[in-house]
Amino acid sequence: MQIIKFRFCLIAFFLFSISNAQSKKYNIHTVAFYNFENLFDTINDPNINDDEWTPPGTQHWTKEKYEQKLKNLSRVISEIGTPENSNAPTLIGCSEIENRGVLEDLIKQEKISSYDYGIIQFDSPDQRGIDVALLYQKKYFRPTSFSNIPLLIYKNKLNSQENINEDLGDVEIKADKSRIFTRDQLLITGFLENEEIHIIVNHWPSRSGGEKASSLYREEAGKLNRKIIDSLQQINPMAKVITMGDLNDGPFNKSLKNALGTKAKKSEVLEFGVYNPFEEMAEKGMGTLAFRDSWDIFDQIILTKSFIEPNFSSYEFWKAGIFKRPYLIQASGKYKGYPLRNSLTEAGFSDHFPVYIYLIRELK
User: Residue 91: pLDDT band by 50, 70, 90 thresholds?
Assistant: First the structure.
């Protein structure tokens, strides 16, 4: 377990009085989320739309590119959260993965194999075959239950349905029942050391067809998130829940502010509410991805109020960040400054920067 010492300035930050502002020791865990951007193997799966991610496909996805992509991702994972925590993330939510096999290849990479990551993953009904998953260090986290919760959206039940573009790219509409098939939400319950926590890993419907036209799909995703959290809090009002993912919306969009009910400031979070530390970053113009030179934070980690109580006798939220090292950034060309993503000539990292939070607990 990585141990950190906080000096007086940090103790003051945590609202301890000057009389108690002596050096204290804390356990720390990094919790991260990373969109792996099309982590496909090279094998053509006839059950999903992965033809472009094969050697003869449009991406010319070769064994060499695939292996380089795994090395690239493992490097990032090994460094997220440093230098405050020299240990790699204890928990990593991930999206845009083809199957369990690619994750098994990933956790065997030299830079992260020593962390002994476990995998929780289900196949989603997504048209492209991409899923969400959780990687966890077995030494520190013990899952007790997990399930994939489908996002049930039916086109004929949505408001203003005539204005919704059916060509959403990452969803499949079955004409017979008009259900829109997209990625499930992954719910995991387990013990971080001896403390029970719940994690929801998300990849909400994309903005294909336009932000406004597709907004209702993500609002439905936010409502499902809220329903899951409510059900956990009904069992235990102090349930510690982390929901994270590529939400395809920024912190100010309806899916978060209205459907999920996020708040930007800890003081605004009421009982059973949720806190989004990435909203203030968005206000400052920070971002995890860019489109037409406009930055936004689609990748977010959101916590229930029980994680932000000023009591570090159990694991509590410390701070959040966007992991943005120079090697993750396009250095030249039209997309200079953007995340260094895959190209036809090389395997990059991702078109998203990863995000992370720290959970800390005082050592007695």
Answer: very high
Tokens encoding 226: 């809220």
Orientation of helix 63-79 relative to helix 100-107, angle to 10°: 60
Q: Which domain holds residue 203?
A: 3-362
Contacts (Cβ under 8 Å, ≥6 apart) of 93: 32, 33, 34, 132, 133, 134, 199, 201, 202, 244, 245
Length of the chain: 364
Domain count within the chain:
1
CB contact burial 202-220 (16+ within 10 A = b; e otherwise): bbbbbbbbeeebbbbbbbb
What does the CA dihedral 249, 254, 255, 260 come to, rounded to 10 degrees?
A: 130
User: Under 8 Å CB-to-CB from 264, ≥6 apart: which residues?
Assistant: 251, 276, 279, 280, 283
Prediction pTM value: 0.90
Report whether pLDDT(107) > 70: yes
Mean pLDDT of 135-157: 92
Read off the CATH number of the domain in which 303 is found. 3.60.10.10
